[in-house]
Amino acid sequence: MAQTLESIPVPDSSPIRAFATRAGVRIFQLPLELFPGFWGYAYLVLVDQPGVTPLRVLIDSGSGLDSSNESLELSLQAVSLATGIPLSLSDLTHVLITHGHIDHFGGLSYIRPRTQAKIGVHELDWRILANYEERIVVAARRLEVFLIEAGVPSERREAMLQLYQITKAVYRSVPADFTFEACGMQVGPFHLLHVPGHCAGQVV
Question: How far is residue 2 from each of residues 23, 46, 63, measured CA to CA in Å?
Fold first, then answer.
């Protein structure tokens, strides 16, 4: 059972919450401004066990907008200062993506050039990360048909389609290095559960 350790202040955001498991694994809830005025979280997990290479695992990567990337960098710096452990993007060993929605994987195109960390995602969401441009085109066409059939006026329909495609300028396709089912739904000490519904490849 996890217990709260402390709160680490980060400028212009809510504090980072820190937890520890009974096994001594440290978990940090990193606040990210995913979109203007909309905050969410990524998680940093530090696994240090005797005789084993330490794991520095980021769970989700934010939206990829400048505000989200900046929040991520500031949060990592704050945890590094609080723990005395080097924790920049280049220190990460893994980035695990919980599901294929832009506010959870969009930061990958910012992170990928800055780290050698292995990126993992479920098979059912792999294509979203690796072929995002294709997805935007196909999904936008389907959305347009839906809006037409729903009777949305053309001016409003065009505005909604532009809003949907705004993330096209933020994210560029980043293939994952591995998929979860291929790993037996386990990455080191992480046991993954496939819980589709919110997204086809969602895991916890």
Answer: 10, 14, 27
Helix or strand holding residue 44 (H, E): strand 38-47
106 and 62 in contact (C-beta within 8 Å)? yes
Interval 25-67: pLDDT, tens: 999 999 999 988 899 999 999 999 888 899 999 999 999 999 9
Query: Residue 162 is encoded by which pair of tokens?
Result: 């532009």
CA distance 138 to 118: 28
Structure tokens at 135: 């997805």
Q: What angle do CA 139, 59, 194 make, to 5 degrees?
A: 65
pTM: 0.91
Q: Is 24 left (phi over 0), alpha (psi -120 to 50) or beta?
A: left
d(CA 5, CA 79): 13
The H or E element spanning position 104 is helix 102-105
pLDDT digits (tens, 9 = 90+) for 74-130: 999 999 999 999 999 999 999 999 999 999 999 999 999 999 999 999 999 999 999
Task: Please state, in angstroms and rounded to a whole number, the distance separating the CA atoms of residues 133 and 27.
Answer: 33
Pick left, alpha or beta for residue 156 (phi over 0 → left; psi -120 to 50 → alpha; otherwise beta): alpha
10/7 Cα distance (integer angstroms):
9
